[in-house]
Amino acid sequence: MALRHAVLAALLDGESSGYQLAKAFDIGVANFWHALPQQLYAELAELERRGLVAGRQVIQETRPNKRLFHVTDAGLAELEHFAADVSKPSSIRDDLLVKVQAADHIDTTPVVLQLRERASAAEARIELLGKVLHRLRGDATEQEYLRTGDRIGPYLTCLRGLSFERSHRDWCLHTAGVLDERRTSRAER
Description:
This protein is mainly alpha-helical. The protein has helices spanning 3-10, 18-27, 37-49, 73-84, 95-101, 109-137, 142-148, 152-188; strands spanning 16-17, 53-58, 66-71. A 3-stranded antiparallel β-sheet has the order 1-3-2. β2 and β3 (66-71) form a beta hairpin. The termini are far apart.
């Protein structure tokens, strides 16, 4: 998947400025794609050059002018083509896992601290994703929303993000506990 597909998908909810897009990436899209704001601005310019998005200037009196972007028919066709392609299996690339892999040969004290920090960060994202899900579904129950909701794609990706963050938090806490226990028992010998 290229960044362009994530940007096109994020713009499907309507017109957005680069700033708004960056905020959307921070909250919702970050569950499955990370991008820095400067990468997003560069990608928007390239998508516009290729005709996959169109932008318009909005004059603002009290603030700098801004550009709003929307997906064109060509951009939607690009997403259709992307959706039809076979997806590659996902994989984990995480430097913390390399550190855990080496746990039998290193001092695990800093690794345990990092695991607990990761668990805490995951907990914060769990709370944020819960708020996003509630905002999307409003007063509907989850089952009602999944059956009849308007914006099901963002909702489903947030559910995946929530599941990932819960699993990641639990693994980090479990692993930190195991490493702590092993370190303590070695020290007592």
